[in-house]
What does this fold into?
Amino acid sequence: MINDALKERIAQLHLPDIKKHIFLCCDQSNPKCCDKEEGLLSWEYLKNRLKELHLSDQGGIFRTKANCLRVCRQGPIAVVYPDGVWYHSCTPAVLERIIQEHLVAGQPVKEYVLSINKESF
It folds into this structure.
């Protein structure tokens, strides 16, 4: 049973409106894929840019800061669901391309794809 407080939070987050969800590995307890400061800089960029473009909330793009996505090489690492597209080297410049080309236009940024769900594209 879902209580009223949870229903309210679901509404505040616009969960039924989510079209894509990007996870960014950027705040590791034990940084391996990139420098912790570099990862947090990328997170701040992603968070602020999605908000600037009105893509978060009712814009249909949800974001999550992940402690570790287990790739541990060439980070920050990101994954976009439901597409199953994984990215490496997610600096602010690369994230801008992912936002514009993948999240908005629907095309993965091939130069930075490290893995892709075969059934998605």
